[in-house]
Amino acid sequence: MAVSNEMTDVIAEQVADCIAEREIPAINELLSGAPVPAFSRLFQHMLHSAERVDVITTNYDRLLEVQAARVGIGVDSMFYGHTVGKFDPVRSRQAMLRAENQTGRGRFASMKVIPHVRLSKPHGSLDWFTFNNEHFRSDLTIPGSRRIVAPGGNKYRLGYEVPFDQQREQANRAIDSASALLFVGYGFNDDHLQTHIANRIQQVPSVVLSRTITPNARRYLSTSPSAYGIEGHILDTQHTRVTRGEYEISIDRPIWDLNCLLEEVLGK
């Protein structure tokens, strides 16, 4: 059932406040913990051989941005600016470029892409606001409506409003052009992304990593001959169940946990 715009704003504010309260200790742990966080290490590894990594999250929190910042990796979020950033996809993209090969008199012959994360958040973010029909990103409490697509009857419609629409379109382009797919804790329940995922997962190597793989995710896995499901063993979280098509093996390491998987793959 659709609700009024006023009620939508109230719901979004309440959801955002609830998540933000739990986000603070998580951010503190990511920034102060001795081990480098899992996604920080994953981004570093992937950017050794690529100038950009496309990351899509349907969560509202800022934990991925924090993990990129922990290791000095830039993020193209479609917002440009610091204390208060404005929705400006062009300038956000340009901020990931660096001038090179100076030819004299302050002129540069070329621009080089700084290795970075291109982040798509089709459901919005806790730090996005709309005020006077303009869209901003800030960690400050600024005036305006929270821009998150909260659960409810308006979820599908809101996904086609600014800035969600451009975030969704970027996410879908990234899926369509991906050479491989990694899903971490994703339940395969988002209508805005599913058609593109359904097509691409059949064409490229894919891994679905989760404590427990959902029935929806399992259906997608069944359509691809090169997709692996990696999940915790039902009776023992220190073991992992790995499936590919009709084949299944058990591993006596909890590699369904991203930290453990990276230790196995990267050796650290």
UniProtKB/TrEMBL annotation:
This is SIR2 family protein.
